[in-house]
Design goal:
Elements (H helix, E strand, L loop, with lengths): L8 H13 L5 H8 L6 H13 L5 H15 L4 H10 L4 H9 L3 H18 L5 H14 L4 H15 L1
Helix pairs in contact: 1-3, 4-5, 4-6, 5-6, 7-9, 8-9
Length: 160
């Protein structure tokens, strides 16, 4: 006897409706979740169609919410958001739509505040090492390199 519980199709649909309702999901996440159930390809497709028809699954909504929330909660830049959405197999059109949903003024203001906070938290005394740590930290968060290097130059000239 298998250790996996056996569910009928309706129970699986209810589980996936709940899965999609407590957090926004993309198609890839739902497909990965469906792998845990012993279903045929036809049954998996039928469930995905049901979730789309009942608006539990909407990739446009996912891209918009993902972009805004990662920007505000994890302080990610546009490059990191774009790469994370690509990893989830979101279309280029929806990626662009999600990234464009971030107001440009907020994006720039947030970069200024974040870069100052990052610069001030680095305790390195060596100016070159501090600049490198600053640039690396913001590059990991997916901010644009030209903005980062310009800001690093500004801080280095101001503090050293």
């Amino acid at each position: 006897m298998s250790s996996k519980s056996i569910y009928n199709l309706q129970e699986i649909i209810q589980k996936l409706e709940y899965y999609c309702s407590y957090q926004e999901r993309c198609h890839l996440e739902v497909q990965e979740k469906l792998q845990s159930f012993n279903l045929t390809e036809n049954e998996r497709n039928q469930i995905i169609v049901h979730l789309i028809d009942t608006n539990f699954l909407n990739e446009e909504r996912f891209a918009l919410i993902f972009s805004i929330s990662k920007f505000h909660q994890k302080f990610w830049g546009k490059i990191r958001i774009k790469n994370e959405l690509k990893a989830r197999k979101i279309s280029d059109y929806l990626i662009a739509k999600g990234i464009n949903s971030i107001p440009e003024e907020d994006y720039n203001d947030f970069f200024e505040a974040l870069s100052e906070r990052v610069w001030n938290t680095i305790t390195e005394k060596n100016a070159l090492k501090k600049r490198k740590k600053f640039c690396d930290a913001l590059l990991r968060k997916g901010w644009e390199s030209d903005k980062i290097y310009e800001k690093a130059k500004f801080f280095a000239n101001e503090y050293y």
